Amino acid sequence: MRRLLRVSLRLLGIVPLWIVWLVISCVPRRRELWLFGAWNGRKFIDNPKYIYREALTRHPEIQAMWVAKDQRLFEDMRRRGLPVVLARSPRGVWAQLRAGAVIFTHSAEWDFDALWLGWPVRRIQTWHGMPIKRIGYDNDKDWQPQLRARITTLLWPYRNDRAHLILAAADVDAVTYRRAFNVEPQDVVLTGYPRNDLLAASRSLTSRRDRLRVIYMPTLRGTPGSAFPLLSEGGFDFQTVDLELARLGIDLFIKAHPVQRFCEADEGHFAAARHIYRHTGESDIYEELGDFDALITDYSGIYFDFLLTERPIIMAPFDLNQYLSSDRGLYFQYDDICPDSPCVDWKTVLQRLASLREKIGKPPHERYRALLNRFHRYTDDGSSARAISAIKLRVGLQ
After folding, report:
1. Count of domains observed in the chain
2. Are 167 and 189 in contact (CB under 8 A)?
3. Are both 389 and 361 inside the same structural domain?
4. Are residues 243 and 141 both part of a single domain?
5. Which of 63, 79, 128, 247 could bridge to 105 as Cys pair (CB 3.0-4.6 Å)?
6. pTM for the full predicted model
7. How far, CA to CA in Å, does 212 sit from each of 247, 256, 292, 312?
C-alpha cells in the first residue's frame, strides 16, 4: 500500500511539470538566438564549439550563446570574453526560454535544462563523432529503446530527444543516424563535422621534428568515471615500450576517453617514463590533433576523423571479442574499416611504429584513400560554414 502511494504521488508530481512545459512552449522564440552546449554542459569542445566560433566570427545576424552547467567553465569562458550563461541562472533560463535553436553533442536533455526549451525550439544534433559502436535505437544492449522513449515522452514531454536536424559526414553515417535517431531522410544533412576543420587544414603540414609524435586514443570501457583498464591488463609494459620509443625517436601520448580516468598504478608509470606521456583530459584534443604524426586507436570514432590528415593509423583492437560480448555491437566488420591489418598486441604495434618514419609525408595507399572517400563527403575545412547554412535553413533565418 505504501509503495502504491509513493508511485501515485510521483505520478501526480508529473502534472505540474506538464502545465509548466505547456506554458513554456507558448513563449515566442527568437530565430537568431542559438544556444550551444556539449558534454552535459561541462566542456567547451566538439562540433558545437566550432559552429559557435564560426557564428561569432562570420555571422553577426546570429546571436550565439554557450550554455554551461559547470561554474569553472562559465568563469573561464567569461574571462575570455565569450558569450556564455549558466544553465540555471536567471539569464540562462531566460535564454533557453527564448532560443530559436539549440546545438548539442548528446541530447537536448543532457546538454541543457530541457524543461525550459519548450516544444518550438529547433534541436540540432551534431553527435560526437561518426559511430563505430551502435547508438540510439540501434543499441542492441539497450532494453526496448523505442518503447522506453514513448513512455518517457508521454510522462515527461520536455525530455523528448527528437532532432530537427542531424549533421553527418557521409552517406554511411547519414543512414545510421536516420535509423538510430528515428528521423526522416531530409532531417540528416551532409555538412562534414565542424570539429574536423582544423584536422583537414593540417593535412598539408609535414613533421619537421627530430622526434615523431604519436597519440593513442582508446574508446570508453566500462562506465563513465571508471578507471581505464587496458594498460595494466593489456600487457603494456611501460619500461619496454619506453626503451623502444627512445630507440625509434618517437614520443607516445596516451589520452583516455573524456569520461574515463587512468588507474593509480599507471599514473606512477607515467611519471617514471621519458617518452610516454599522459595526455590530460582538460584541453580540446581537436585543437592539437592535427599536430600528431600518427594515431593508434581501437573502436573510437576518432579513427574516421584522423583519416582526413592522410597520416598513418594503427588499429589496435586488443580485446575485440570481449568488447563485442560485453559492450555495444559494431556497425561494421572490424577488418573492413582498417587501413592495414589490425594489431593483436603491443609488440605488433611497436613493429608498426618501427616503420613509421618512412611513411610520414607520403601519399596514403589505395585502401586508405578508399576509406577516406567512403567516410567523408568533404575533405576541406568548410564544415562549420556548411553547418551554419544548414541550421539557418532549418530555423528559417535567411
Report:
1. 2
2. yes
3. no
4. no
5. 128
6. 0.90
7. 12, 20, 8, 12
